[in-house]
Amino acid sequence: MSQIEIDELAARLGEVVVLDVRTPQEYDGSGGQPCDPRQGHIPGARNLDVYRLLELPQSELRDELALPDGAEIVAYCHSGSRSDLATQALRALGYDARNYVGSWHEWSRRADLPAEI
């Protein structure tokens, strides 16, 4: 499974499509995990809950994501498990998808990295 590390992702923000597959409440910071020092999401990330992603028919998922041809997707969640499922599903549909295993749990601990709420 293709993965991406934190420093590569930080350097490529704006270049890759970042897909946050957590719940909308985790994404907007209103219901994040208490173990994380910051709440919110990676700047520019789109939010699509992994369970919605897995339930959508392929045609609706393509419409929902509205990705340009050849887009590279980086999925993340809280700790890399939900994003692993999302990455596998996206790759099965032919997308170039990578999993950010460290996910928000790692990103939120790096005060030098930006976050949005």
Quick recap of the structure?
37% of the residues lie in helices and 13% in strands. It is of the alpha/beta class.
Write the layout of secondary structure elements.
Blueprint: H1 6-12, E1 17-20, H2 24-28, E2 46-47, H3 50-55, H4 58-65, E3 72-76, H5 81-92, E4 96-99, H6 103-107
Parallel strand pairs: 1-2, 1-3, 3-4
Written overview of the protein:
By secondary structure, the chain is α/β, with parallel strands linked by helices. The chain contains 6 helices and 4 strands, in the order H-E-H-E-H-H-E-H-E-H. The protein has helices at residues 6-12, 24-28, 50-55, 58-65, 81-92, 103-107, and strands at 17-20, 46-47, 72-76, 96-99. Strand 1, helix 2 and strand 2 (46-47) form a beta-alpha-beta unit. The termini are far apart. The model has no long low-confidence stretch (mean pLDDT 94).
Summary keywords:
alpha/beta, 4-stranded parallel beta sheet, 37% helix, Oxidized Rhodanese, domain 1, 117 residues
